[in-house]
Design brief:
With 422 residues, the protein is an alpha/beta fold. Helix content is 40%, strand content 16%.
Amino acid sequence: MKFKYGKYVPSLADEVDMEELVSALSELLLSSGFQSPYGDGSLDGDRTMQALHDAILDALLNGGLLPDDVLEQLFGEQAETAKQQLDDLVQQIMERMQEAGYITPSPELDAERERRAKAGGGGSGEGEPGQAKFEVTDKALDFLGYRALRDLLGSIGHASAGRHDTRDMATGVDASGAPKPYEFGDTLNLDASATVLNAVTRAHRGGATGPKVQIGYEDLMVAQGEYQSSCATVIMLDCSHSMILYGEDRFTPAKQVAMALSQLIRTQYPGDTLHVVLFHDSAEEIPLRELGRVRVGPYYTNTREGLKLARRILERQRKDMRQIIMITDGKPSAITQPDGRVYKNAFGLDPIVIRETFSEVSNCAKAGILINTFMLARDYDLVAFVRRVASMCRGKAYFTTPQSLGQYVLMDYLDKKTRTIH
């Protein structure tokens, strides 16, 4: 069978860098239930193909993803022709995103229900093509975590590789300090040059002559290095309704930071562990791969239950450092009672809730677990609560914004220096 090869004609879609496009669409792909300008305000309104189409179009026109000469060529055409070309271009890009494995069409369950309802003589049409939904793949979430990490490390001016340094000096690791005399119990990581120099100096002082040098116990010098520890971390994410209220989406930046931290630990700190706990009316641990798909809901803030679950997770970890990174913007407003019922107070800082929450903070302190709180609000009563939590657990309290949250979290993690027992 003969094949005919034609000349390759590049399309405008080939001019678009797919990775840059996915980065530009991160707000849509990681949406957390906040009303999106591309959607209809419902929880799933920003995951439709029409919303994706509009977001890609906005990124092409305003995001600098197309060269200026290509844009001039497009808008040099007649209005109708330019509109059709743009629509075709966006459609090709959406197909490329599916082929590259960044998105996948969602099963059309709603459309099928509507079709069957119509066949039965009832229902109103909601299965239009524009309402077809898509799902974000693990590949896209992994890539967005990598880009978030790269952007955050670039913004703080350095990228750190390796393990966590501490103030303690120990033998038996990479040498980075001055040699010290050997003491019983030290790893015999001899500094050969310093040891021989001691022996030669001692022999010279004693008036010994001859080519032989006798090395004694007192001549032994061992190399010192910084004691480097491993760390177990639980990120506690507040997914109560307040995280998307007041005209600001605070949850999506928190997810991006957690995804970046996951990438950092996986690539730079393989000895560390990271777990994610969501706290709302109750608390649950979620797999890291599901982090990008988490959304907020009409929940209260059960901080105590989140701390209890995080403590139980960390107590199973045999690490030098164990810490909780709590990201929240609201006051504790719920606790789980012994009978399983949830006591709620929407106004927050209820004496019963606060007492039980501080009791769990005390349990974390007794277990040697640090609690570092990253607060996205500045209420006076809330500031006092967070500072007391930090003082009880000898942790830190950061009062930050969604824009600077990532820098604070990563700088704290990379620069953490804590005393360990060895």
